[in-house]
Amino acid sequence: MSLISRIRRVLVGPPIATKHAHHERLPKIFGLPVFASDALSSVAYATEEVLLVLALAGAAALYLLMPVSYALGALMLIVGFSYYQTIHAYPKGGGTYLVSTENLGSWPGRVAGAALLIDYVLTVAVSISSGTAAIYSAFPQLQPYKVLIAVAAVTVIGLVNLRGARESGIVFALPTYTFVFCVLMVVGAAILRSFSEPSHAPPAKLPTQPEDHLWLIGPMLVLRAFAASCTALTGTEAIADGVQAFRPPEAKNAGQTLFMMIALMLTMFLGISWTAHYYGIVPMSTSQPGYMTVLAQMGAKLYGEGSWFFYLLQGATALILFLAANTAFADFPRLSSFIARDKFLPRQLMNVGDRLVFQNGIILLALVAILLLVLYHADTHSLIPLYALGVFISFTLSQAGMTIKWIREGVHDYRMFISGFGALVTFSVAIILLVTKFEEGAWMVTVAIGGLLFLFAKIRKYYDFLQREFEVSPQDRIEPVRTTALLLVPRLHKGTLKAIAYSQSLTDDCRALHVTLDPTSAEEIKREWDRLGVDMPLVILESPYRSLIEPVLEYIDQAIEDDPEAMITVIVPQGVPPKWYQALLHSNVAALLKLALGSRRNVVITNVRYFLS
Amino acid sequence: MSLISRIRRVLVGPPIATKHAHHERLPKIFGLPVFASDALSSVAYATEEVLLVLALAGAAALYLLMPVSYALGALMLIVGFSYYQTIHAYPKGGGTYLVSTENLGSWPGRVAGAALLIDYVLTVAVSISSGTAAIYSAFPQLQPYKVLIAVAAVTVIGLVNLRGARESGIVFALPTYTFVFCVLMVVGAAILRSFSEPSHAPPAKLPTQPEDHLWLIGPMLVLRAFAASCTALTGTEAIADGVQAFRPPEAKNAGQTLFMMIALMLTMFLGISWTAHYYGIVPMSTSQPGYMTVLAQMGAKLYGEGSWFFYLLQGATALILFLAANTAFADFPRLSSFIARDKFLPRQLMNVGDRLVFQNGIILLALVAILLLVLYHADTHSLIPLYALGVFISFTLSQAGMTIKWIREGVHDYRMFISGFGALVTFSVAIILLVTKFEEGAWMVTVAIGGLLFLFAKIRKYYDFLQREFEVSPQDRIEPVRTTALLLVPRLHKGTLKAIAYSQSLTDDCRALHVTLDPTSAEEIKREWDRLGVDMPLVILESPYRSLIEPVLEYIDQAIEDDPEAMITVIVPQGVPPKWYQALLHSNVAALLKLALGSRRNVVITNVRYFLS
């Protein structure tokens, strides 16, 4: 244990006292990177995902990139306005789970909670996969180790969060602003160069176009491309969740930060899409040798593949994506602690560890995310079909909740209209996501949400049952009990002497039990007993089947029958060896007995340990 | 637990009382199959292994099969005579471990024990692999599942042994005599046909002959081929181990059975070798499609591949090989119980289970054998290099022990000479095995024996230490102790009430401990405490680091310091949910506390369970 403690201290740091819990208030300049890294980082892969859908339908379909991007831009504005309102309506923090539960009721709140939990896991998996792709776009020799890199990244981020990330403002600011700077430099260079070389090259080559995908051309293709783009919106809700982290006036500052974020997302996303469109950049398959992300291709095309800017771009992309994963490590444990507080998840998720973080939630998220990364080989494109559906379900419920709130409060002006419209649009998008991605993976998300809801209900039911069972009523009194001590004596040794003394100190009703396999051992122990003058009856139990447990069980059952009110305390002397592994050489009767006595009431099993020097 | 018990009952059967332990005395007709199946079954693969060695040196080397076989025949007779003497000198059973320990001392005995333990494991692995090969020689479509079949066979044999195989005589007789009959039919047919077609075909084709094996031609090749043949002798010691299982006069009957066995082994082994030689049968590589063992090839050649005799031969071969594995399942647990009785192995191996078998030894053997089968893909030929060395080490020590015994007893006649000669010959063979198979695997056996000897010494040292530590000296008295009870009260519920009453029944020195994370919960519990009028001081412990464990540990440490002589009993109320998995929803403070209190002396931790209906 002390070794475990020491390792833990090195990895996670010494405990932090509750009184040191501080609520760092962020100026906008830090608030933006802390809350927006998730949303902003999505632009690193969103355009690529749209292109991958369009490319399936052939080169002719690629012209659809810009219309789809404009549609997503419009959606960004709608979602942005909706959340701007939420921030002002919930200046204490308008998390989706809270808003939905408060305005729509427990069930919709639970659906939002389940959808968000799943999406936080996917945020980690997708962001880490995509960040890893940014790394091996710059260093192709690392591609074979992508799963390893991804798992290591999750582990490091998990440990950082277990330590409690308190200097987050500065840590987030640098990579986030570098990323924004780099993307704007790419887009800016693309625009500048477009003046000097007005005609752009047509797409050079396309990934394979299997015939069975030809049916996709048409409205379905557009919808699928649009669905793929929606991943860019994940993380938009973050600022509304964390209004209280801003300096006062909180709502005003948070609202301004939200608009700053939406503006940046719009610019970056449309800029990247336009650049891809104008320069005819085609996404590569990760199985292609020398794979590069679309963003990396742009950097390589405009600044040169070996240039320092190219490496800066890839580094900043990887970092902001890892920070996006880090955001989920703050959100998931907090949300699961809220849900656990409402008794829908195990109460261990509410435990604030000695580093002032929800350690169980952090560990749970890391484990599930690692599992996903291993199962999906840390491949962004395979994970994307699972992504975004949960986000849009929670958007819908959050905005629907806001709409109901306005109606209840008698607010029938533009605010109600914006929330209602937002709910309608995000609901439509959720339906589009569900339909277009159903076969590819959205069905799993649906099943997972259903499974979580079932689990929530079961857990709540159990905690309610626990409360009823445990509740002390005014009639309840403490009834005195009698205790009978039964001391197991396999052999008479020093540990036994100590256990005898201990048993006698507990109660006058002590009996020693010796299970005998052959009569000579019984005689021997009787002699010893007499010689020591032990003031305790010694009961010899025959064991016709050579079990050391069965005769004791039978004796205990008889004792319970004789005196159903008494508490039977079974005392088992146990030698504790100097080294833990030496315990393998002891026959562990106590553990076996504990298992066997599992369901017997009024029985208490006690180990009296004797330490071998 | 009751579910586990029920499954156990179905698989292993109801308990058998000690008084029903009977020592079935076998007539010779049953004694032969019971004790000889291991030795006789070896002829199923011995010739093939010799041919595989010779074939490496090319077709020209195959003529060496008969000389090597005659040498092995001579060795069989020498070993047979040696053990005949052991039987008469130890009519109570002359196991190698016993004979070596008694005559040569503890260390040689331990070496023999370690060597034999390893060889019993290998007997299971080799016999099962070879039996599986007999099955897929008849049904080639089963070859891909050979590891699965082998593991299933070990599992079934393990379960049969856990039940206790009491009707062994009849069960063994049928396959053993069928196998003997089939082999004699093959050899007989071969001899008969040799008269009608006097010239035999030269070997049709040979396995690959890599050039780097050409150095093998010469004396080394002969030694290697001889070493390969020695596997035929494994199991010869079985009758000497089990003299007491024969009807009186035990030694006479056992001795006659031994000679019967040696005669059969000689006839069958030489017969198979001659047939292979005469008909130019060449061993196949298991990776060849349509692989057949050498014995199966003979059956197919002489009786036709689809004939009922062919299937009978393969079935009997598989069965006798599985029975050989079964023999190890009787020998290994018995030997390990002897070694455990001498305190060189964990005492759990001495436990006779409720089915009157050494269940832990059976389970241990099954697990290690399955591990070997999986690692070596149930391939007989890869396992063979590990085999036989242990057997010949134990032969040598057993015969050396007999020689010393004769010398000590002043017997200087032919008996001393036979034992001495046997020891010398088997020692030479052991050296040949070690040298010729060293690189291929004998080094592992050497390391394993060394490792076991180290383990034996460590275990013995620990048990000796335990005895010294535990020993009650005449001065030892039972010193009365005081008990302080500390009751943990996280919340006040019905389980707590029960625990309060229990604590009060134990000692007058009771204190309740409540760890508080916030002051309101402390106030609340104090009010409840007063309302119930609990006659026990309530200690509120602050937890600046939010740990529920640390403050309790500190309090306990203080209590130990205040009164180093008292026993501190920590009582933890624990709710027991109706279903075991619901315990996941409880925070298990007791288990954490137990871990944390690990090394504190004079502390006893007690769970008072409250059953939720």
**Beta strand count of chain A:** 5
Number of domains of chain A: 2
Proportion of strand residues of chain A: 5-15%
What's the mean pLDDT score of chain A?
84
Residue runs with pLDDT of under 50 for 5 or more positions of chain A: 201-215
CATH class of the largest domain in chain A: Mainly Alpha
CATH architecture type of the largest domain in chain A: Up-down Bundle
Description of the molecule:
- Two copies of one chain form a homodimer.
- Chain A is an alpha/beta fold.
- Chain A folds into two domains: 24-464, Amino acid/polyamine transporter I (Up-down Bundle), CATH 1.20.1740; 483-611, Rossmann fold (3-Layer(aba) Sandwich).
- Chain A has 21 helices and five strands.
- In chain A, strands 3-2-1-4-5 form a five-stranded parallel β-sheet, with helices on both faces.
- In chain A, β1, α18 and β2 form a beta-alpha-beta unit.
- In chain A, α5 (96-104) crosses α16.
- The radius of gyration of chain A is 32 Å and the shape is elongated.
- The two termini of chain A are 19 Å apart.
- Chains A and B meet through α17, α18, β4 and β5 of A and α17, α18, β4 and β5 of B.
Write the SSE topology.
Two copies of one chain form a homodimer.
Chain A: H1 2-12, H2 28-41, H3 43-56, H4 65-89, H5 96-104, H6 106-138, H7 146-163, H8 168-196, H9 219-229, H10 238-241, H11 250-278, H12 294-303, H13 308-341, H14 359-375, H15 380-383, H16 389-408, H17 414-470, E1 483-488, H18 494-506, E2 510-516, H19 519-532, E3 538-542, H20 550-562, E4 567-576, H21 589-596, E5 603-611
Parallel strand pairs in A: 1-2, 1-4, 2-3, 4-5
